[in-house]
């Protein structure tokens, strides 16, 4: 598979899975079917859209690919009619979001490399592509953004995977393998955090030193 | 009237009316006159700005038309000095917002068609142009976004009207009439929802099937 | 110093100081080190990024200057390890934010003038560059946005300074001095508001006139 088709595949997969999470948030807000499509689209294309804008690549990726919007609408309809079958929609949401993060970050890394970005900007584009759609979803829906969850790896998982991808490419690895390793790292870190409580130490305010 | 001037007229009208709603939200937050201008601008130009960015049409529409920003400032000053005359500012806000939605959606549809977009992207641009300014207004002001109001047609009204517009153009109608029909559909759906309670069924969680 | 290097210096300074405020907000949310970097970046580059997008200048300013992202990361690490030394992190946040506003507004004014914008758009770009990063920071972190603080000059300080800058340039002043006067005006208005309670009258709803 060529690099360009791998990146396109990652883009499609991340749009689809993030769209499912957006529709699940719409179900928690008890919206109608168009509300489901709206949140599915905001979440599905938010990250990649911002990435394309920042890289100066307009029109953005989905303007020339209308089938992406139809895929999003299909995902929203599916969730509208089946979400009640799941015992814990929030748990489903969290795991789908982890999966989407694991494909969106390498998609962002790949697009940045194709655009000729250096390593630092490549890592930034991976993190932005991975996190922005979910952040828009949670902010508009008034849910606690996953990026703010204390003691969980989220941005950190995206950052770690993007770093692995950029480092492998810098060391001469093939871009395809670097993107796969990037995505697996993101998912492993996020899943390990959810399942086993992996985390980094968080900031804890200590009382100022005694001056007496 | 040529299509280009019809689109420009719709753009002006939607900027003006959305600006009035932004200033009304500023009055609810009891800001000073510059705060009024700020929210009027965020709401008035938010949707069209995002549309232009997504279509890769930078600089955005108001950069070459400074009179739009002066119009917004005038709207903000007007509301600052007269809002107290209205018995229910929230009701006024809702109806102005419906009117703004009814002109912004066809403006978005028209710009997308002029830019050569296909039907799916055209519908998406109509919805984005119509809803994004109000969404930014409500999110920044910490009000419940109108897109989240249960059991009311809001995104759905924008979507229905954009669909009518794109369908008419696809069937060979003149673009001018298609935009007029688009705007009337949006306003009728939104107004009918506010006045008569029109809505679509919303998602309601059902208990999972009994497994016993 | 040439105008271009003055603008670059203002851009660097505003990125650095806004990044410090973003990291302070991350400390209030008790995030991990990557969460600190994330909020530092969102706040540090948010305003200038939106400005570049609106002016149609993609890729945005930091894509070609990766050292800016490294500067942001360094600022985040510094705050992660030293924030507990300050008695009132919120007070420190407010004063750093005022300083950042005072350098970001003239940076926005300068870039707009370099891009050939007229006076109205120049003022708007100054206000947007100054306020958007902090607004994104507060909205994502679920803090009360500083733009909404009643009875304090915030957007008004940015607007006043941008107006002074654009007016001086319009009257034939050197651009360098105009930017310096712009920044000093912003900081003086914001600091005066915090220290001495300077403000503009805010909107206060009055009861509707008696009709009897």
From TrEMBL, chains A, B, C:
Localization, UniProt: Cell membrane
Q: How does it sit in the membrane?
A: Multi-pass membrane protein
Q: What keywords sit in the KW lines?
A: Cell membrane, Membrane, Transmembrane, Transmembrane helix
Q: Does the keyword Membrane apply?
A: yes
Task: Enumerate the Pfam families for this protein.
Answer: Gly_transporter
Q: Which positions fall inside the Glycine transporter domain? A: 9-83, 94-167
Q: Which residues cross the membrane?
A: 6-26, 33-56, 68-86, 93-113, 119-140, 152-171, 177-200
InterPro entries xref list:
Gly_transporter
Superkingdom, according to UniProt?
A: Bacteria
The record's similarity note reads: Belongs to the UPF0126 family.
Write the protein's name: Trimeric intracellular cation channel family protein
